[in-house]
């Protein structure tokens, strides 16, 4: 009984969007356990758009391993086939498992969208903005072809609309000579975009103003996190370390190279090209410029930007989105970016585990592996992580 009353000492590893969102939600959900520390090697930094009079960024760039500083970031739903769909039966077991992973992520994304849109409306200083999302597909899969105008795509009342054949024809007219690159399916809906520097700094500020504590340190293993709370009577560790602490063999990185330009676009727009490459424009709210992307390279460890990829991305943006700029030289480039998406095969690991240290068994709750979806899943994932923290903190859960 006495144990139940004493507060837990929560230490969250990681100050990316997942660790920050989780830490803020823990403060809100468990007000009697507000003794929370975030330990991380890196914390939110300002955008390279923040420059001195000679265009030198005011702060050094984050490392590529700190994914949250390199995201666009927008919310682009990933459609999936449900078991009721006639095509579902013809999928292999692996494909069906993947579809059910996407269905779980869809629920996290819908919950997150509700929160993000509320923040955009009530607190525009978070750097979140509600914006139209547009998608052009040159080689649409069955999941997209199954969608109809009026479906719930990104969130309830998102005004989802499949763009008509006549409109597509008009779009393709601009590139009539380029038969291999014609749009075959397109859609439009309401979504949101995030200025990641502003938003992560806002989350950190909110955490600190609620009594949270931060420690900047690089850990060699999860157990070292306990050293930052040496007085803890009832420690619980939350592992939101992205790709930084890597014994999990299911963890891979997906390299993403993008370009930040000062030019400001008006809607978050993605084109999935027939050759498997992607071209996208993600405007960053509050005058944060536009992110032009991007590559998705599994296991590619190169941390510097490749000039040939930069050229391809800029050329492709001019070709795919002719209403933005008419020539590559019209782009005002601010920075070349390389980030590592912390991707986990089979989806995010949101799970309770145990850390055995000096004979003590300490609960550890994992929350990592969001890949390219960390922002759009953040609040939904944080809710699941919080539930597991609550459960593992209950005395009967301790062994
Ligand atoms: C180019 C690109 C575009 C993207 N676009 C989008 C998008 O549009 N929408 C979207 O939702 N997502 C997008 N993402 C994905 C998104 O950035 C990630 O899913 C998200 O940032 C993951 O957050 P995280 O908190 O798990 O990890 P991270 O942001 O990587 O944070 C990890 C934290 O753990 C700390 N850490 C790691 N190892 C250690 C250690 N050993 N010791 C101490 N601390 C440690 C780090 O310092 C950091 O604070 C994009 C990613 C990239 C690269
Ligand atoms: C903590 O997170 C990392 C991902 O950064 C993962 O590889 C590792 O297995 C987790 N730690 C433990 C002890 O499970």
UniProtKB/TrEMBL annotation:
UniProt-listed InterPro entries: DAO (IPR023209), FAD-dep_OxRdtase (IPR006076)
Domain FAD dependent oxidoreductase: 9-387
Cofactor requirement: FAD
Pfam assignment, any one: DAO
Gene3D superfamilies: D-Amino Acid Oxidase, subunit A, domain 2 (3.30.9.10), NAD(P)-binding Rossmann-like Domain (3.40.50.720)
Keyword Flavoprotein: yes
Keywords for the protein's UniProt record, in alphabetical order: FAD, Flavoprotein, Oxidoreductase
Annotated family: Belongs to the DAMOX/DASOX family.
Protein's UniProt name: FAD dependent oxidoreductase domain-containing protein
Natural source organism: Knufia obscura
Lineage: Eukaryota, Fungi, Dikarya, Ascomycota, Pezizomycotina
């Amino acid at each position: 009984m006495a144990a139940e009353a004493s507060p837990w000492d929560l230490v969250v590893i990681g100050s990316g969007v997942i660790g920050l969102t989780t830490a803020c939600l823990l403060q809100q959900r468990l007000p009697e356990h507000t003794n929370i520390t975030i330990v991380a090697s890196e914390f939110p930094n300002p955008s390279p758009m923040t420059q001195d009079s000679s265009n030198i960024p005011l702060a050094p760039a984050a490392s590529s391993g700190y994914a949250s500083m390199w995201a666009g970031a927008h919310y682009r739903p990933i459609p999936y086939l449900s078991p009721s769909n006639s095509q579902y039966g013809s999928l292999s077991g692996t494909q069906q498992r993947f579809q059910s992973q996407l269905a779980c992520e869809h629920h996290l994304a819908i919950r997150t969208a509700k929160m993000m849109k509320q923040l955009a409306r009530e607190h525009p200083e978070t750097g979140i903005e509600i914006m139209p999302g547009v998608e052009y597909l040159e080689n649409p899969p069955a999941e997209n072809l199954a969608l109809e105008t009026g479906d719930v795509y990104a969130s309830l009342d998102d005004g989802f609309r499949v763009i008509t054949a006549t409109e597509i024809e008009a779009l393709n007219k601009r590139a009539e000579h380029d038969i291999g690159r014609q749009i075959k399916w397109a859609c439009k809906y309401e979504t949101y975009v995030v200025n990641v520097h502003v938003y992560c700094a806002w989350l950190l500020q909110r955490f600190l103003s609620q009594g949270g504590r931060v420690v900047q340190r690089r850990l060699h293993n999860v157990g070292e996190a306990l050293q930052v709370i040496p007085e803890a009577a009832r420690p619980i560790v939350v592992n939101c370390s992205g790709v930084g602490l890597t014994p999990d063999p299911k963890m891979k990185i997906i390299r993403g190279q993008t370009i930040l330009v000062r030019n400001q676009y008006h809607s978050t727009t993605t084109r999935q090209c027939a050759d498997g490459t992607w071209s996208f424009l993600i405007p960053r709210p509050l005058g944060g410029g536009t992110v032009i992307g991007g590559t998705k390279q599994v296991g590619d460890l190169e941390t510097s930007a490749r000039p040939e990829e930069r050229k391809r991305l800029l050329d492709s943006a001019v070709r795919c989105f002719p209403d933005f700029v008419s020539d590559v030289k019209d782009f005002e480039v601010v920075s070349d970016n390389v980030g590592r998406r912390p991707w986990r095969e089979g989806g995010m690991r949101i799970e309770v585990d145990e850390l055995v240290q000096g004979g003590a068994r300490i609960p550890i709750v994992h929350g990592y592996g969001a890949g390219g979806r960390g922002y759009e899943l953040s609040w939904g994932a944080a809710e699941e992580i919080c539930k597991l923290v609550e459960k593992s903190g209950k005395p009967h859960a301790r062994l």
